[in-house]
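new request in #modeling-help
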Amino acid sequence: SNDHTNERGAQPARGEQELPYVLIDCIEGKHGVYMDHLEYLKKRFCLITMKEYLENKKILSEKIRAIYMWYHKPVIDEELLQSLPNLKIVSSSGVGIDHLDLKLLSRFGVKLSNTPFVVSTDTADLGMALMLASARRLVEGYQMAVAPDTEYFPANWLGVEVSGATLGIVGMGTIGYKMAQRAKAFEMKILYHNRNQRNKEEESAVGAVYCKKIDDLLQQSDFVMLAVTLTPQTHKLIGKRELELMKPTATLINISRGLVVDQDALVEALQKKVIKAGALDVTYPEPLPRDHPLLKMQNVIITPHIGSATEDTRRVMMREMAESIEAALAGLPVPNEVPL
Amino acid sequence: MAEQELPGVLILDIGGTQGVLANHVALLKKHFCLITMKEFLANKKEMSKKIQSVFVFECRPTIDRELLESLPNLKVIANSGVGVDHLDVKMISSFGVKVTNTPQAVADSTADIGMALMLASARRLVEDTEHFAVDWLGVEVTGATLGIIGMGSIGYKVAQRAKAFEMKILYHNRNRREEEQAVGAHYCEKMDDLLQQSDFVVLVVNLSPETHKLIGKRELGLMKPTATLINISRGAVIDQDALVEALQKKVIRAAALDVTYPEPLPRDHPLLKLDNIIITPHIGTATVQAIHMMAEEAITNMLAVLNGQPIPSELLAH
């Protein structure tokens, strides 16, 4: 049914048992919960927006038992946690948790869940999309095709092959592995660097060769794909040194987090043609300031962090988040729980 | 070997924006005496007898009756690229001249561009990146249904790539292919069935009288309103006016075209004003590697003709 006649945020009480109160940031707009997700959520929860909460803290603070964190909002700080004595769980959208203070949540005894697997195929697809778009100069080509002063298409305007090239995957988790599966069909030679080597079967299924030293991967790859989690160990994993180890004909693709790359070093490397091109779904910050040098470079493609931005995936994500909240509130094992 | 002993090959020009690329020149000079159109026209009497082959790059030089009549020793016209809709194969054959193309060299890079366009369109890659709104969404490629119209070498390579994205693959072709099993592709004898079921429709046919305006208003109307049309064949395979209307009225979701008719489109063409379209400047084979392989394949074909050996990719007039 498509019944949207309920008041936003308020749910009529159903018999004796009220639906659990869940805090959200807002509905619709740039970072709000989607209108077409509301029906599903409202069947299960009484949604309270931050605005409603702040207007009626006295009553609502004790009732709120979960936070539905949609794209990093609402922002969770010590003050908020202190004012929600019955908070059991924060359910965070997406796979990344680097925006959360895990120690803080742990201190307050609040559980955390994310949505690690649902994002995988879309993010792998976007990684492939960026690699192909960069190699074949798709964005530049499109601009030429539609530019008002284009009179002909020059014959000497070329990109580089993806098929048969060498792809180096840094971070062979779920997303990295799906990238390898896709790249194999393009007859790419696949190298990977990971904390742990994958087993022989997994490696041979995609024809991936393990590089214990990231340097070996960097030196041999035509395309370097970053698919790691952001942690203190991977912060600025790719800096000036690593960029210089790459081939001058190589492209760096980032679908992980902006902070995995030393952005200033990247700017310099691209300007000096130490590497050929960059394709980034993530930067630091997001969005970049409008006068940032990365925005001006012809050999850089930037997308607005859309790794998991498809209707279907976001819907599944929403359902998984709801499931995690329901489990936590029922005292059951929480799917997709992040150990704190 | 003295240069005059090498057979002459006619090319439009060397370098510049329309001429044969510098690396081709080196390849060609290994086996041929290179003669540019300019040199030919300046000294027709002497040059015309030397020319045994023409290397057609980016549809140039134009092959017309007048040119053919002035080249008595011409044996072969070798096209760089697989499409030869710009050549009158029947007329050329009537002069006893063979026509060859380069199907091997183009397959990977063209299949790659097809995938690139599908992904870029689905995930809205070329759109204005001012938007960081979380409700700015694209559509999934993984697990979606891909309909391939034209399952030749290029179409088959598209299928191989799409399989890795766990796509459901349908195809329509003049003939059914045995190899369909290997890529999990389902044959649609009727193109209508493919159009009705596909989330992405990719055109990979040759341009011929049969495929001219193959996709028109009727076919676009059969497609899902959420579907994307991708063209990596020839612009004239689509009824372009019908496409404009279908995109404006959202009869289909979007289109991504590497080819149009003409190329480039006139700057006031309605296709250029739509926001649910990606157009690329016919770059299906525009990679350093593909261009090199095309020249090599063309040279192999030319030498085979001149040496009376089996010709790898000769095109016959129907």
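bot summary: The longest helix of chain B spans residues 103-122.
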